[in-house]
Inverse folding.
């Protein structure tokens, strides 16, 4: 294996040779979560707290996506672990959906810290789940919609990256609008 400088920002997590102790599917999820945090950090850098609450062109705010990433990772992993959501988790879900913008109490730094904490917690849970039989059936929600441990793990990665992409798009629009106003 080539051991060039893997700390380069141009080398994505999956090409860094990390997490070799984790089975491949779990390793891929860990790499996706690492990339998510790196992309969120990169693309939100320089945004103001006012901008992260803005809904440019009717897009959902960066705040919504950051809150949703932090909460959804926890919820999906809860299902992967064979649990149902707690009243607290359901309450947080409702606040994500109903209160998209900041109440003035959270800052971008606090939101990013919450995402970082959620993804750090998720990494430990993914490490445990990755050693299980990924075909083990799991039920999602009150209706117990069918999935598996593996399905839930993959969904943690793809759902997170979907929202990261939306943050990137919204951040680019915000910067473009800021630049447009300066003309």
């Amino acid at each position: 294996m080539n051991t060039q400088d893997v700390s380069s920002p141009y080398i994505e997590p999956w090409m860094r040779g990390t997490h070799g102790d984790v089975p491949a599917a779990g390793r891929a999820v860990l790499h996706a979560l690492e990339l998510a945090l790196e992309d969120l950090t990169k693309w939100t850098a320089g945004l103001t707290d006012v901008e992260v609450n803005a809904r440019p062109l009717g897009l959902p705010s960066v705040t919504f996506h950051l809150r949703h990433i932090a909460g959804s990772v926890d919820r999906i992993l809860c299902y992967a672990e064979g649990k149902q959501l707690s009243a607290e988790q359901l309450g947080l879900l409702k606040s994500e959906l109903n209160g998209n913008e900041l109440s003035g109490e959270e800052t971008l730094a606090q939101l990013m810290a919450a995402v970082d904490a959620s993804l750090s917690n998720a990494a430990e849970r993914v490490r445990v789940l990755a050693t299980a039989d990924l075909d083990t059936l799991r039920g999602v929600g009150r209706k117990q919609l069918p999935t598996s441990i593996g399905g839930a793990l993959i969904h943690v990665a793809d759902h997170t990256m979907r929202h990261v992409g939306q943050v990137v798009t919204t951040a680019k629009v915000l910067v473009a609008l800021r630049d447009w106003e300066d003309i």
Observations:
- The chain has one domain: 20-37+57-181.
